[in-house]
Amino acid sequence: MNEQVPVTQDAAIPAAKPVKAMPDAQIVKSVKHWTDRLFSFRVTRPASLRFRSGEFVMIGLMGDPDPKTGKQKPLLRAYSIASPSWDEELEFYSIKVQDGPLTSKLQHIQPGDELILRPKPVGTLVHDALLPGKRVYFFATGTGIAPFASLIRDPETYEKFDEVILTHTCREVAELEYGRQLVESLEEDPLIGEMIEGKLKYYPTTTREESPVMGRITEHLKSGELFERLGVPPLNPETDRAMICGSMGLNKDITAILEESGMREGANSEPKEFVVEKAFVG
Ligand SMILES: Cc1cc2nc3c(=O)[nH]c(=O)nc-3n(C[C@H](O)[C@H](O)[C@H](O)COP(=O)(O)OP(=O)(O)OC[C@H]3O[C@@H](n4cnc5c(N)ncnc54)[C@H](O)[C@@H]3O)c2cc1C
C-alpha cells in the first residue's frame, strides 16, 4: 500500500477582519488543502441562515471585470454545506478544476478573504425526503461526501436510524483523507462519539491506487461484498434507506441497483426509500 501523506496547510485566522464590501459576503476563517485537487474551508455563517443538514447553497467570488464596462459580476456555483446545521461556522469541501471559472480562483482563498454566499439552502439529501427506516446508506464519490459530512455530524441521523453506513469511493487513497479524518474525529468526539458508537460504519474504497478495499461501490453492492464485510443483510425496502451523491454515471448505476431491490426514489414533497443528488454537472 502506498502510505501517501496528504499535503495539508493549516492557515491561521488573522486578527483584523476586513470590512465586508460584497453583497452576501462571508469571511473565510480557515483553509485546508488535502491534495492538489481537493481542499476544504470554513467561513462565517450568516446569522439568519437556517438549513437542513445535507442541503446546498450557491457560493462564489466576484468575476473578472468586463473588459468593456469594467463591471464585475458574481461567479457562483452550487456547493453542499459540509458542516452540520448546529455548527456556528459553515464548512465546504471543494474540487480544484485548474481551468474551472470558479475553482481556479477559489483554490487560492486565504483566511480573512471574502466569499459570496447566497443564503437560500435547497436540496434533496435531507431526512425529510426519506421514510422512517432502520438503516441508512450514504453513497458518495469524490466531493460527493460533502453533504454526508454534514449528515454524519447531525444527531438527528442517529435518532432516526440504528445503523448509518457511509461509503466513499475515490481514485486514490489521499482523496479519502478528508472523510477518514472526519469519521475518526467523530469517534473521539465527547458528544457525538457516544451517539455514533456501534452505529456509524465507514466503507472507503479506491478504484486506482491500492488500498485495503478496492473497486467501484456498484460492484461491491452487486457481488454482495459490501454486505458481507459490514455484516449487514442485503438491501431491503422495508428497513433500508439511502442517499446518493456522485457523478451522473454513479448516481444512475446505484439508482438502478436500489430500484432492483424494490426501493423507490423520493423527494422533499414525497418521502420514499432513497434520494439522489449530483455532486457536479458534467
Ligand atoms: C447540487 C450541487 C452540489 C455541489 N456541491 C459541490 C461541493 O460540495 N463541492 C464541490 O467541489 N463541487 C460541488 N459542486 C460542483 C460545483 O458547483 C462546481 O461545478 C465546481 O465548484 C467547479 O466550478 P468551476 O467554475 O471551477 O468549474 P465548472 O465549470 O463548474 O466545472 C468544470 C468541470 O469540472 C468538473 N467538476 C466540477 N465540479 C466537480 C467536482 N466537485 N468533482 C469532480 N469534477 C468536477 C465537471 O466535469 C465540470 O464540467 C456541486 C454541484 C451541484 C450541482
Automatic annotation (TrEMBL):
Assigned keywords, A-Z: FAD, Flavoprotein, NADP, Nucleotide-binding, Oxidoreductase
EC number: 1.18.1.2
Essential cofactor(s): FAD
GO molecular function, one term: nucleotide binding
Name of the protein in its database record: ferredoxin--NADP(+) reductase
Keyword Glycosyltransferase among UniProt keywords: no
Species whose genome carries this gene: Halocynthiibacter halioticoli
Family: Belongs to the ferredoxin--NADP reductase type 1 family.
EC supergroup of this enzyme: oxidoreductase
Catalytic activity: 2 reduced [2Fe-2S]-[ferredoxin] + NADP(+) + H(+) = 2 oxidized [2Fe-2S]-[ferredoxin] + NADPH
FAD-binding FR-type domain sequence ranges: 21-128
One GO process term, biological-process aspect: cellular response to oxidative stress
Pfam families: NAD_binding_1
Lineage: Bacteria, Pseudomonadati, Pseudomonadota, Alphaproteobacteria, Rhodobacterales
Domain of life according to the entry: Bacteria
CDD domains: FNR1
